[in-house]
């Protein structure tokens, strides 16, 4: 099972998305994020991924926990993804080998170029709400070739630190 984070940096009416240049979900838009490393907390992971992928610095205490998403593949948990949201950052986004950053109006988030599940939970996160959900994919590996078949989603979730 993979444990990962995603982070959505919001500035006014815009959100910072990346076009992923390699790895899982290549060619699609998402928030910056990636796998939890040994010994790090979820917040440290979220801040590190934002720094590594787009060069912004985010104080750990400014990261709000906004979601916990479980992705299953053929009935088994594949990834648990912890979603954070913040309006506090330092620096300007820069493109890296892994990611091409883009400020996108929240009204125009390109859901047709994202993971199929994003359209279900990301609007709530961008409104400042919290979500908890399970999303089922089928059809074998890799996950980004599998088909999204079912989900269960709750808004207004609360998380343990
Ligand atoms: C199934 N539906 C999904 N919907 C939305 N987001 C999804 C997702 N499935 C995975 N993600 C996220 O995509 C990021 C990269 O995944 P990840 O495993 O880290 O791949 P990547 O090759 O980039 O690894 P590293 O950056 O090296 O850690 C990571 O934040 C992960 O939570």
From TrEMBL:
Record EC number: 3.6.1.56
Reaction catalyzed: O(6)-methyl-dGTP + H2O = O(6)-methyl-dGMP + diphosphate + H(+); 2-oxo-ATP + H2O = 2-oxo-AMP + diphosphate + H(+); 8-oxo-dATP + H2O = 8-oxo-dAMP + diphosphate + H(+); 2-oxo-dATP + H2O = 2-oxo-dAMP + diphosphate + H(+)
InterPro entries (alphabetical): 8ODP, Nudix_hydrolase, NUDIX_hydrolase-like_dom_sf, NUDIX_hydrolase_CS, NUDIX_hydrolase_dom
A Pfam family the protein falls into: NUDIX
Single GO BP term: DNA protection
Location relative to the cell: Cytoplasm
Keyword set, alphabetical order: Cytoplasm, Hydrolase, Magnesium, Metal-binding, RNA-binding
Annotated ranges, domain Nudix hydrolase: 1-127
SUPFAM superfamilies, per the entry: Nudix
EC category name: hydrolase
Cofactor: Mg(2+)
Gene3D superfamilies, sorted: Nucleoside Triphosphate Pyrophosphohydrolase
GO molecular function: 8-oxo-7,8-dihydroguanosine triphosphate pyrophosphatase activity; dATP diphosphatase activity; metal ion binding; RNA binding
A GO-annotated cellular component: cytoplasm
Principal location: cytoplasm
PANTHER family noted in UniProt: 7,8-DIHYDRO-8-OXOGUANINE TRIPHOSPHATASE, OXIDIZED PURINE NUCLEOSIDE TRIPHOSPHATE HYDROLASE
Record's function text: Oxidized purine nucleoside triphosphate hydrolase which is a prominent sanitizer of the oxidized nucleotide pool. Catalyzes the hydrolysis of 2-oxo-dATP (2-hydroxy-dATP) into 2-oxo-dAMP. Also has a significant hydrolase activity toward 2-oxo-ATP, 8-oxo-dGTP and 8-oxo-dATP. Through the hydrolysis of oxidized purine nucleoside triphosphates, prevents their incorporation into DNA and the subsequent transversions A:T to C:G and G:C to T:A. Also catalyzes the hydrolysis of methylated purine nucleoside triphosphate preventing their integration into DNA.
Protein name in the entry: Oxidized purine nucleoside triphosphate hydrolase
UniProt source species: Natronosalvus rutilus
């Amino acid at each position: 099972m993979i444990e990962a984070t995603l982070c959505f940096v919001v500035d006014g009416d815009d959100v910072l998305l990346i076009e992923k240049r390699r790895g899982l979900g290549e060619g699609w838009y998402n928030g910056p994020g990636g796998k939890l490393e040994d010994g790090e907390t979820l917040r440290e992971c979220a801040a590190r991924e934002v720094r590594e992928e787009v060069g912004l610095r985010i104080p750990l205490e400014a990261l709000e926990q906004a979601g916990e998403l479980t992705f299953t593949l053929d009935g088994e948990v594949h990834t648990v993804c912890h979603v954070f949201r913040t309006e506090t950052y330092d620096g300007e986004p820069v493109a890296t080998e892994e990611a091409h950053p883009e400020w996108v109006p929240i009204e125009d988030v390109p859901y047709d170029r994202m993971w199929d599940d994003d359209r279900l939970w990301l609007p709530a996160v961008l409104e400042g709400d919290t979500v908890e959900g399970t999303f089922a994919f089928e059809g074998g590996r890799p996950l980004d070739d599998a088909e999204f078949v079912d989900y269960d989603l709750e808004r207004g979730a609360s998380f343990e630190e």
